Amino acid sequence: MSGENEAGAVGQSIPRLEVREKTTGRAQYIADMSSPGMLHGAILQSPYAHARILSYDVSEALAMPGVVDVLTGDDLGDGRMGAFIKDEHAIAKHKVRYVGEPVAAVAAETETIARRAVRLIQIEYEELAAVLTPDEGLANDAPIIHEHLDDYIKVFPAVCGGNLVSRTELSQGDLDKGFAEADFIVEGTYETPAQAHLAIEPCGALAEMDASGRVTLWSANQSVFRVQANVCESLGLPMSKLRSLTPRIGGGFGNKMEAHVQPIVVALAMRTGRPVKLILSREEDFECVRARHPMRVRCKTGVRNDGTLVARDVEVLLDCGAYGDDSPGVLGYSLLMARGPYNIPNVRSVGRLVYTNKMRFGAFRGFGSPKVNFAGETQIDEIAEHLDMDPIDLRLKNIVATGDTWMGGSVLASCGLRECIDAAREASNWDQRDLPQTPGKRRGMGVACAAHISGLLGTGAIVRVLEDGSVALNTGAVDIGQGSDTVLTQMCAEALQVPVDGVSVASPDTDGSPYNWGTTASRVTYTTGRAVVGAAAEVERQLRDHAAEMMECSQEDLELRPGGLIGIKGVPGKQVSFHEISLRAHWRAGGPIVGHHTWVFDQPTIDPKRAVAHGLPFPQIGVYSFAAFVVEVEVDEASGKADVTRAWMAVDVGRAINPGSVEGQMEGGFVQGMGFALTEEMVWDDARLINPSLLDYKVPTTLDTPHELHTIIIEAAEPDGPFGAKGVGEIGLVPVPAAIANAITDACNIRLTTLPMKPERVLNAMEQAAHGS
Amino acid sequence: MTEMVTLRVNGREHPCRAGIATTLLTVLRDQCELPGTKRGCNQGVCGACSVLVGGKPVRACLTLATDCEDREVTTIEGVGTPARPNAVQQALIDTGAVQCGFCTPGMVIAATALLEEHPDADIETIRQGLSSNLCRCSGYRKIVEAVSLAARRTAS
User: Fold this and answer.
1) Same fold, A19-26+457-600 and A295-455+606-772
2) What is the pLDDT of residue A27?
């Protein structure tokens, strides 16, 4: 493509299309919406971790002035939803399975009345023994959380039973032989806590039913299509009866991918015949949406004395919470990433996912990978220490490169990992580092590498040429704040050689947009971008057909010219505009120009000649982006508090469509990863989440965040990617905990294996190290 | 229970109903039809509901509507328009600092007040001044850069 000079073309950091409405408070989010005659919803949450629902008494709530409807599980059928296992009703039915689970809902004239009314609902429960950890859940005499698990619909070959939701295993090579070849083995157990997504916008939805009984639903979401599927499955509605739309989204990091309150709100709207809006409070959002899984990872790596990694055995135990949600995918993905970006020939990764009586855990930026990365990448540093080798040199000796295979056997068509490592090494002055030393503080530097997919499942794009030659793009991909509307528009503009402001982008709508699985798995730039390029190519073909007839020349003589023109090669003045062509198409010949392209990622994750997989939920996964991060930390000797003082992030994104937005993803991912590494932790006292508030759950602020956050974009073009692009949404978070942990080791000579690395944990380890020496 | 109060918001008078516990945030969003001020936590922590009262930044979720009578309230809708953004807004646009935008109204208010008080704010002053406004998308660096740019542009 040669349109680099075109305003807003690929490779330029143009401002977000919607930035003016966002900076001036004009952007409309779900909580800002209303509809004439609208009611307000509120939920009642379960006080029990595990209990049978014996009876409801809603009479007092219904009698309260202003209350229009009370909804309980008895009012709904037996429909169940779930991304991988259909195990969840729209609202608790027969049983509650965690403290905070929505168990009844009210629609009332005001939010205040609705919130008061839910407290008047009387529910009689029979409390059951609860399962609070995966270990408890796997015990022989454990209470069973889902008695009918065997009967649930599953979309993958789940190995399940009792409270075991799924067991997945991947292996390649010969593990015993690999460990026998090793000169030494490093082993460890690593634990990571639940992390709250904490998009600043709480979840909510607004639904209304028309006279024919069809429902229109607006909600905070990452996929209007997953919302539609979840609502329709749980309420037993045909998908033709529900239209799912999106306002602006106030951040989504996985928490808005699957359903939250949408099924409840649709049920209330259908029962009352009036629009209903329900916005969760911050506390409710903490307690009943979803969070990152608590995980335990056992990791064992075998190494030759020359630094060659020969074997790795990884065992993962994942706390599912009460419902399956995206968890089987998170488990499978973490196992696929457990080898890390290294050519280790003999690997086994096995994991179990176990129901517990806690909130459901689900997708969160990184999708299981940050936890196995923390284990694997700190272990690489342990190995380097054992070998007295530079941790970067050890990595370089073992990393994958273009043409190598990933765990499972898929071939890497592009890999810029070496360039990432070299760039981070040089920018951070790793080899000649001379860290400033402050009395009472210890400074250190750490490195970690990572890879992440972009890909998965189906997507599409429709490109139309309007009467005046303007271009209308419609993809169904929700821009959750990461900037995909802008990036996809840039790609469309580049492909058709028109300015960005000559392209409009449609808001996703299940009635009018082509299917898009969702804004997740770092996939929109890569998968939807490919669809956009394909649809634009189809439009170009139609434009050329018209132009050839209009200028009476052959197709081969034509060229696309910047500014919406098709001309005859070598004849500068001879051209027709998109405007002229489109008028002809609309009124005289051929019909309006519409191009579309849909596709599904179809390259297998597993090459059966190289690897064996059991219970893997995604047979086709994606292409790989790569990263190498170096961080500098300063640890306070008195308090144990670790601060990140500087960081260098090099990420191979294939091609940066909008470099400014790529930096934004890297920096935002880094800081969210820093929170996961150092401060963030959801804490349960018995079955009750005790810190569901921003007062007690600490996310990084400006003061916790280094201003020296250096981003380095590496472009190892992906042959199949749109303009060579791969995804960048998640990878900025993945290596952060490991890099920080390795820096803390460098600073203090302690090795932490549990997140978050909060001050008391650091201090205790420092004291133990001092006493031990 | 409720009484009528007249709020002066962005230079316009809004007659509103407010009880003893009605927050400024609720009144702005539900009665004044000014939804630019966001409810992120309703606990005074996230800063998304920052507005200016008498020129000073406050948390609208912790401020009682009745306490704002006879005081000048400025919301995000009053500090700039899409066609004429203020210096902070323009700098946020130019640096690509905005992602989801949900914290942005509060950030703009906090930064505008900060630069009012410290027109020559350096990076450290800006980091301090914005430390009570949470953003989960950006990692803050570009926001701090933007406010610094706004300060430099205003000074020159």
Assistant:
1) yes
2) 98
A433 alpha-carbon distance from chain centroid: 35
User: Which structure tokens are listed for A612?
Assistant: 């064996």
Give the E-state strand segments of A675-718 in sequence order.
684-685, 688-689, 708-714
Flag whether residue A458 sits within 8 Å of chain B, measured between CB atoms.
no
**3-state DSSP percent of chain B in helix, strand and coil, to 5:** 40, 15, 45
Residue A25: what pLDDT? 97
> Does B144 contact A483 at a Cβ distance shorter than 8 Å?
no
Question: Would you state the pLDDT for residue A1?
Answer: 38
Stated as kind and residue range, the H or E segment containing A593 is none
Break chain B into its structural domains and give their ranges.
3-78, 87-155
Give residue A271's identity as a one-letter amino acid code. Answer: R
Distance CA B57, CA B63 (A): 11
Which residues of chain A carry a pLDDT beneath 50? 1-5
| Cα(A185)–Cα(A176) distance, integer angstroms | 12
CA A670 to chain B, closest CA, distance in angstroms equals 7
Instruction: Please give the C-alpha separations between residue A551 and each of A496, A546, A547, in angstroms, as whole numbers.
Output: 19, 9, 6
| Alpha carbon distance A638, B48 (integer Å) | 34
CB A761 within 8 A of CB A744: no
**Locus of tokens 């008498």:** B54
Mutate to test the interface with A, among B137, B142, B147 (most CBs of A within 10 A): B137
Q: A291 CA to chain B: closest CA distance, Å?
A: 15
Token digits for A60?
């007092």
Of A468, A473, A522, A515, the closest CA to residue A495 belongs to: A473
A23/B38 Cβ within 8 A: no
Contact between A25 and B37 using a beta-carbon 8 Å cutoff: yes
Residue B2 vs residue A429, higher pLDDT: A429
Instruction: Give yes or no for a contact between A277 and A216, defined as CB atoms under 8 angstroms apart.
Output: no
Question: pTM above 0.95?
Answer: yes
CATH label, A19-26+457-600, candidates 3.40.190.10, 3.30.365.10, 3.65.10.10, 3.40.50.720: 3.30.365.10
Chain B residues 21-80 with a CB less than 8 Å from chain A: 29, 34-43, 45-46, 48, 75-77, 80
What ranges in A202-250 are assigned the alpha helix state H?
224-235
The CATH number of B87-155 is: 1.10.150.120
Q: May I ask the CATH architecture of the domain A295-455+606-772?
A: 2-Layer Sandwich (3.30)
Q: Residue A677: which of A580, A576, A752, A578 has the closest Cα? A: A752
- Residue-level pLDDT at A397: 98
The answer to whether residues A219 and A480 touch, using CB atoms and an 8 Å cutoff, is no
| pLDDT value for A5 | 47
CB contacts under 8 A, A 2-21 vs B, are 13, 15-16, 18-21
Chain-chain contact of B138 with A19 (C-beta, under 8 angstroms): no
The ipTM (two decimal places) reads: 0.98
pLDDT of residue B2: 84
For A480, the closest of B46, B100, B123 (CB atoms) is B100
B123 touching A (Cβ < 8 Å): yes
Domain residue ranges in chain A: 19-26+457-600, 33-128+203-279, 295-455+606-772
Question: Any alpha helices (H) in A173-252, and if so which ranges?
Answer: 175-181, 224-235
Nearest by CB: A664 against B80, B89, B138: B138
> Which residue in A754, A686, A516 sits closest to A132, CA to CA?
A686
Does residue A750 contact residue A762 with C-beta atoms inside 8 Å? yes
pLDDT given at position A7: 57
* CATH class of the domain at A33-128+203-279: alpha beta
pLDDT value at residue A773: 55
Question: What is the model's pLDDT at position A513?
Answer: 98
**What is the CATH architecture assignment of B3-78?**
Roll (3.10)
For a pLDDT cut of 70, what percent of chain A falls above it? Answer: 99
